[in-house]
Amino acid sequence: MKIFPAVDILGGQCVQLVQGRKESSRRYGDPLKCASGWIEEGADCLHIINLDGAFGDAGKNAGIIREIIDETGVFIQLGGGIRSITDASGWLNTGVDRVIIGTMAVKEPETVRTLADEWGSERICAGVDAKDGQVVVKGWEESAGDYLSWAEKFEELGAGSLLYTNVDVEGLERGISSEPVRDLISKTKIPVIASGGVTSTEDVKVLYDMGAGGVVLGSALYSGKINFKDALEVIR
């Protein structure tokens, strides 16, 4: 299992949001400095989200993200504001190892197949953001159907992995809800990266034991509720 420290970028700053709300942002400074700090603590991969892109300004933060790619040299998965095949291909050409496509994958499912055929399944991750068991898109405001059904569809279309975000617990720092993750892992054969609510090393261990392919550490990592080195020890 891989442990991905999150580097979410909004207005040029590394931030964390509560329940995806822009007005809830907590700032943690320079994104490259944050990314480098996690690498110094042992991270060999990063989870970068261009929040400005998710909120409609896809070009914002592009320079910062390219700088992180160039300076860190670790495995990077990137999401946020990827609205077209051209957007996804542009980032993959730039040096991102894997793109995360969410709203586009739901609205235009065949784009998953097109990108997987062109770049290889391992570089395409489909986002499964779920609230009350339903996939939600467009800033988590619009429901689009059962999350397990969508996960199966994304796998059939060629996605090499799934990013499952449990919106119900995301950013609250109250722990994970393990049942929906377990159900998703049992439903698909491709790796599931779990995000949302991971607050303790026990949460990491539960996800590791159930067979998650990865875990994203966000709010609790930045607030100090979970120590990155301790989280690494769980999977070693």
From TrEMBL:
The keyword Transferase does not apply. One of its GO terms (biological process) is L-histidine biosynthetic process. InterPro entries: Aldolase_TIM, Dihydroorotate_DH_CS, His_biosynth, HisA/PriA, HisA_bact_arch, Isoase_HisA-like, RibuloseP-bd_barrel. Its EC number is 5.3.1.16. It holds the Pfam family His_biosynth. GO terms for molecular function: 1-(5-phosphoribosyl)-5-[(5-phosphoribosylamino)methylideneamino]imidazole-4-carboxamide isomerase activity; oxidoreductase activity, acting on the CH-CH group of donors. NCBIfam families: 1-(5-phosphoribosyl)-5-[(5-phosphoribosylamino)methylideneamino]imidazole-4-carboxamide isomerase, PRK13585.1. This is 1-(5-phosphoribosyl)-5-[(5-phosphoribosylamino)methylideneamino] imidazole-4-carboxamide isomerase. The gene is hisA.
